[in-house]
Amino acid sequence: MQIEIKNGRLIDPKNTVDRENTSLFIANGKIAGIGSAPAGFVADEVIDASGCIVCPGLIDLAARLNSIEAELAAAVAGGVTSVVVPPDADPPLDEPELADRLVHRGEEIGKARVLPLGALTLGLKGERLAELAGLKKAGCVAFSQASKPVIDTEALLRAMEYAATFGYAVWLQPQDHWLAKNGIAHEGEVASRLGLAGIPVAAETIAIATFVQLVRDTGCRLHLTRLSSAAGVALLKQAQAEGLPISFDVGIHHLLLTDNDIGYFNPHARFTPPLRTQGDREALSQAAAAGLAAICSDHTPVGADDKLLPFGEAKPGATGLELLLPLTLKWAEAAGVPLASALARITCDPAAVLGLDAGHLAEGAAADVCVFNPDSTWVVTPEALKSRGKNTPWQGYPLAGKVVATVVGGRRAY
Amino acid sequence: MHNPQLNSDGKLSHLLSIEGLPKAILTQILDTAASFMGVSSREVKKVPLLRGKSVFNLFFENSTRTRTTFEIAAKRLSADVINLDINKSSTAKGETLLDTIDNLCAMDANLFVVRHASSGAPYLIADHLRRIGRNDIHVVNAGDGRHAHPTQGLLDMYTIRHYKQDFTQLRVAIVGDILHSRVARSDIHALTTLGVPEVRAIGPETLLPKHLDKLGVQVFHDMEEGLKDCDVVIMLRLQNERMNGALLPSAGEYFRHYGLTPQKLALAKPDAIVMHPGPMNRGVEIHSAVADGPQAVILPQVTFGIAVRMAVMSIVAGNS
Q: Mind listing the pLDDT tens digit of every residue in chain A (414 residues)?
């Protein structure tokens, strides 16, 4: 299969390429040429990208695949060519065989690439280590507790020591179990007014302080997921300045919404960690704008019945795979972030977090490509989404940025 | 954002919270309640305003007092009253809150009185009714989680107006577990909306919500300082489960610091009134000498509550 994507504006943030009207040539699953066709190239398929942007396929650092076929179809419809799957599935991804099955199922479906995170501990209970090496061999890219805590600090220390032994990265969500366990919203003015149990910022900063110290002690490579507060960002900047091997990401909704968006108990504004204040949102936005944090969708499909409940009983999270690109564009416009830089947050930056040579379009790289029309506006409706998860605070909103083609490993996947 | 309590004419269609309601609507409710006060002393204690209408008391959380006063109020308005105590186990059987509502709509309900353990539950019901096009069915919040208990807030305002007439010269203290109290939140919004210049919250840091000052409230940790020269003292119930744990060491220590004794009450104005939403914990938040004393207006509150609930139900049902 040889594909030519022509007439598009090619943006490859990692290689600082931004060229109008440039053809991209794909052969044997790889980028075979940029601008001029390699010798003897005959296209089996030509994609006309006039008026469109051609960029690396998106890498989403968190997407739950409850119904895997629908969600992987949603991924490529959103321009996402690789999805990192957190281990908090049912059952949790804590055995090599489960990881193996997930990877193979993903290959069979042949849409986006599936990159599972293995459970750090059995059943995500935070007690006994899962078989990390076995999980790694089965295709897990790193190890995580998803949003489940390791309450026992000694167990966490040992897990990080063990992971460091093999050079594995550990992904943790910084939320102190005790301070977060009863809370459903940011502990602030909105929660006080609405009578919602609060989760203080200290739930995040205390967990970060613990993790940072354990990284100092173990040398474990750590990635922190879904930052929510300005104070958390400040701590992580210090840790990075110290030279510690720590990266972090932020969910796209935390760059666009605050606890004020809970409005009159809108269950679609319930997230883990919670949406916080305008000041927190701005600090997260600045961190993302500066390239300190990658952006992910934190795709969490939730059935209608699990959202049509009072705020505190509704399941947290929002659908995101098909919204990651348009919402990132929306954020970039609002925050004054250049387009190429915004695209880096969802392509090469997540690849760097994963330690993968991916998320760029150099010759010889895997041909994972997204073609989208930045000016094409669509309205978010249940019918417009391929994901089974129709749960989104953007219901009924018009968003700019529509994917017209997605190529994964040199194959047209959308 | 559209206030889900008001219909397109700006009239009260549901009573979900005091917050966001204009002063004129609060005053209308209090005035209407005053007009109903006479009904209770008649031989035939009924007016025909809700004749032929069905009021469903939907109590997802236990309550005897509030449910009873709503029932009496609905009956005095000549409504048919159906009491449903829906404990957790029946919803755990698989029927969701909104399934229950759909079923009751099919039984020609006209008004739902809802008590629920989760903050915001009545909003979900009101929003659902709007989406299914049932603007003829009304919701009255009878207490949702920690969020609001608007009819209690209104009956407290009725009581204050009855004894003090003018809201704009008052100093009102609310004492105790404000963090977990829907009554306190409704009182605060009602007091600030009606123009009370000084609303004080008194309690230990563990029982006060954060950023209370943003609601227009002055915070005091020292009860004696907080009660000084107050016209109205609203005591809140301390739930048993809060008494011995991380929030408070013991009921005894709480009473020593935040219990209302005759000595502490003496710091308020001599004609200050003492209110309590009930049920009271004597010896925990209030000394019996105060609860039974001349300044307590706790039983009149209950009586006024019936007239206030009649007013609320008749007003929302009249705005179909």
A: 899 999 999 999 999 999 999 999 999 999 999 999 999 999 999 999 999 999 999 999 999 998 999 999 999 999 999 999 999 999 999 999 999 999 999 999 999 999 999 999 999 999 999 999 999 999 999 999 999 999 999 999 999 999 999 999 999 999 999 999 999 999 999 999 999 999 999 999 999 999 999 999 999 999 999 999 999 999 999 999 999 999 999 999 999 999 999 999 999 999 999 999 999 999 999 999 999 999 999 999 999 999 999 999 999 999 999 999 999 999 999 999 999 999 999 999 999 999 999 999 999 999 999 999 999 999 999 999 999 999 999 999 999 999 999 999 999 999
Between β-strands A369-379 and A398-408, what pairing exists: parallel, antiparallel or unpaired?
A: antiparallel
**B144–chain A Cβ distance below 8 A for any pair:** yes
Contact A360, A30 (CB under 8 A): no
B149 has a chain A CB within 8 A of its CB: no
E-only strand ranges, A264-392: 293-296, 369-379
Beta bridge partners of A149: none
Its CATH architecture, for the domain B23-148+303-317, is 3-Layer(aba) Sandwich (3.40)
- In order of A381, B71, B103, the CA distances from B56 in angstroms are 35, 9, 12
Residue B215 contacts A, CB cutoff 8 Å: yes
Contacting residues of A for B144, CB less than 8 Å apart: 195, 310
Is A310–B145 a contact, with Cβ atoms under 8 angstroms apart?
A: yes
Query: Which of B118, B127, B179 best tests the A interface by mutation, with the highest count of A CBs <10 A?
Result: B118
Q: Given an 8 Å threshold on Cβ–Cβ distance, is B147 in contact with A194? A: yes
Of A188, A308, A310, the CB nearest to B120: A310
Neighbours of B46 (CB within 10 A): 12
DSSP A15-77: GTEEEEEEEEEEETTEEEEESSPPTT---SEEEE-TT-EEEEPEEES-B--SSHHHHHHHHHH
CB atoms within 10 A of CB B114: 25
CATH superfamily of B150-297: Aspartate/ornithine carbamoyltransferase (3.40.50.1370)
Please state, in angstroms and rounded to a whole number, the distance separating the CA atoms of residues B129 and A191: 25
Of A12, A94, A298, A349, which one is the catalytic site residue?
A298
d(CA A196, CA A311): 9
The question of whether A298 is a catalytic residue gets the answer yes
CB count within 10 Å of CB B269 equals: 17
**Is there a contact between A308 and B96 if contact means CB atoms under 8 Å apart?**
yes
* DSSP label of A372: E
Which residue of chain B has the CA closest to A188?
B210
Residues of B in contact with A189 (CB under 8 A): 210-211, 214
Distance from C-alpha of A277 to C-alpha of A191, rounded to nearest angstrom: 11
Boundaries of every domain in chain B:
23-148+303-317, 150-297
Topology alike, domains B23-148+303-317 and B150-297: yes
Q: Any CB–CB contact under 8 A between B86 and chain A?
A: no
Which of B210, B214, B215 is nearest residue A198 as measured by Cβ atoms? B210
Give the list of residues 6+ apart from residue B308 with CB closer than 8 angstroms, or none: B29, B30, B33, B151, B154, B155, B158
The reply to whether residue A312 touches residue B182, judged by beta carbons under 8 angstroms, is no
Cβ-count burial of A80 within 10 angstroms (0-12 exposed, 13-18 middle, 19+ buried)?
buried
pTM listed for this prediction: 0.95
